[in-house]
Fold:
Amino acid sequence: MGAGVIVAALRLSKDELVGRVQTVCGVIAPEALGNTLLHEHVLLDIRPPSWRDLEQVGESITLENRFAIDYGEVIAPGNCVLDKVDVAISELAALKSSGGNTLVELSCGGLHPDPTGLQTVSVESGVNIVMGCGYYVEEYQSPEVLNRDIDALAADMVAQVLVGAWGTDVRAGIIGEIGCQSPWTTNEKKVMAAAVVAQQETGASLTVHPGRDPDQPQEIADFLKRAGARLDRSVISHIDRTIFDNDRLFRLADTGVVIEFDLFGMETSYYKLNEAVDMPNDAQRLKMIRALIDRGHLDQIAMSQDICFRSRLGCHGGHGYGHMFRNVVPLMRRRHFDEAEIEAIFRKTPARLLTFI
Structure:
C-alpha cells in the first residue's frame, strides 16, 4: 500500500522539517545522531520473486551450512529474510554497545518494509533509525506500481516523507534506495525521475542502488544532474562492488555525488551476485577511500555494511552491525586515518545528508 492512500495522519509541511532529522520515532536534532551507518537493512524480504516458492534453505544458519550459504554453494532464499523483531533488537543493541548511535534502514518498496517494526526496534535497542522510501529494482515491483506515471510516483514518495509510509503514520527520513539495473530499465528511470522531484519537494537526501556495471554510477549521476537533483545530497551506493579503477572513481567524484562504500564486513573475493567481479576486502576498501580523501573528496564519502542476509548477523556467526566500530574504525586508525577524517565520515557527512533543507 502506498503512503498516498493515507488520509488520517497529519501531513507535515516541508518547513517543519528544515534543519531537523526525521527518524521512525519522530524528529530529532542533527547533533543527536552520533556515529551513523548510512546504508543498512533491519527488517526486509529481499528474496528475488523467483525464489519465493523454493525451499527456504537458510532460515536456519548452522556451523555446517553458513560458509556454503555465504559462498553461493547453495541457493538459500531463507537467508534473504530478516523478519524477527526480537533478533533485530538484540543485533542493534550490540551495535549500540559497539559505539553506533544511528542507522539508516533502506528497505523500500518491493523489499517488504516494516515501519512499525522499526519503531519497536528503535525504542527497545536505543538506536535511532531513519527509514527510506521509494522503490527498489523493477523485478520486485507490482504492475500497479509500474503503471504509475512520474507525478504519481513522486507524490507517493513525498507522502511517505510528510505523511507516512506503507499504510502507517511512520515517516521516512530519506529517499531510497532507489533501485537500478544495468541495462537501466525505462520504469526504473521513471522512478528515478520521480525521486528527484520528491527530493526537490521535501528537502530530503536521495540514495541510489546502481546496477552491477562499472559505468552505471556515472550514468546515474549524469541523469541526476540533468533532472535537477542536488548531487551533493545524492548518494551512489555499492561502489565497492561496482567500480574498481581510479579513473571511473575520480570521474564520479568530480560530479559532486556522495560515494558510498557499504559492503564492509564482506571479506571474501567471491561475489555470488556477479561472478565476474573479485570483491575487495575491508583493507582494500580503505585504500580506495584514502585515494579519494587525498584527492580532496573527504566530504563525499560514506561507509556502511548493507546487512541484508541472516548469515551476516552476529547471532548467526556473522560480523553484525557493530563491525564498523569494533573493527573497521580501529583499522582506519592503524592505517593512519586521523580523527577528523573518521568524524567526517561517520558524523558530519551523515548529519548533513539526513538534515532536511
In short: Residues 35-354 form a domain with the TIM Barrel fold (CATH 3.20.20.140). The first strand starts at residue 21 and ends at 23.
